[in-house]
Amino acid sequence: MGKTMSPASKFLINEENIYSGALSCRGCGWTLLARYVSYVMGPETVYVVPACCFSIISGPNPMNLMKGTVVHTLFAAAAATATGVRHALDRQGKQDTPVVVLAGDGGTFDIGLQALSGAAARGENILYICNNNAAYMNTGVQSSTGTPKGVKTTTDPAGKKTAAKNLMGIVEAHNLSYCATASPAFLTDLQAKLEKAKKASGFRFIMIDGPCPPGHKHDPDISIQLARLAVETRYFPLFEAENGRFSLTHVPEETVAVSEYMKHQGRFAQLFSDEATNGLTDIQKQVDEQWQKLLDRQQYENAGT
């Protein structure tokens, strides 16, 4: 496996900040994310949840999964609602109470992007976490602009023809104090990034790879294995930017073809058929080009130190 550059501390949960009995599918990345985020952020946290899988998983009041406060809001309004919650808490003298958005890619890349951009541009003191499972999973696996090229969804039954939106580039353009990508398969890296985001001020953003067995069409028991392969094949790179300073936080030591990640998921099945032409080659080229850009940026950062 590759070299992890984040602090080498183990993610040991000694006090749960979620209750048992999540209303999630087996192998769901959302439930794992809720467990890790709630542990780092603490039981006083206010979570703002727009329409997404987690609005179901978190449960109806008073049977919330989270031990913090959960505020459900409209699909497009997560960042705006979180802004209102933040200002209300500040007026009560509760500046240390974290406000965290937990949203999917549909409510982040698409429907909630305007509110996200506004809150980021204003420097609102909130942490926005996107669980990117790459489609509108809660409403029937429709494509979002976070859906990668080649993925089969109910609205792209032959496979999406265009690449996913570069949301991290858009978010970074707002000059944030902290933004990062993370994975449930790399818990040390995930914990370090959550802790950095908690300590930082202003608008912070973390995008986390979200395994989804029914949407990605894979066995529930290999969710973490696939999340690890997504990173090791460079399909989902791990990096962060602190006040604009970029760094890769995991560099795979071996070159693993992206097909090793894709072949276990039914959403890519059409790319492995006898009729498929150049689909895998095109995606591998895209992944390689993206990774080279990140390496070039890392080299530039290192040259400036």
What does this structure look like?
The chain has 305 residues and is of the alpha/beta class. It has a single domain (3-303), classed as 3-Layer(aba) Sandwich (Rossmann fold), CATH 3.40.50. 36% of the residues lie in helices and 14% in strands. The chain contains eleven helices and ten strands. The strands form two sheets. The chain has an eight-stranded mixed sheet, with helices on both faces. Strand 8 and strand 9 form a beta hairpin. Helix 1 (29-41) crosses helix 7 and helix 3 (78-91) packs parallel to helix 5. The radius of gyration is 19 Å and the shape is globular. The chain starts with a strand and ends with a helix. The model is unreliable at 4-9 (pLDDT under 50).
Top CATH class: Alpha Beta
On the 0 to 100 scale, the average pLDDT is 93
Number of strands: 10
Global Rg: 19 Å
Number of distinct helices: 11
Main sheet characteristics: 8 strands, mixed
The end-to-end span amounts to: 28 Å
Helix content: 25-40%
List the domain count as a whole number: 1
CATH architectural arrangement: 3-Layer(aba) Sandwich
Concise account of the structure shown:
The protein is of the alpha/beta class and 305 residues long. 36% of the residues lie in helices and 14% in strands. It has one domain: Rossmann fold (3-Layer(aba) Sandwich).
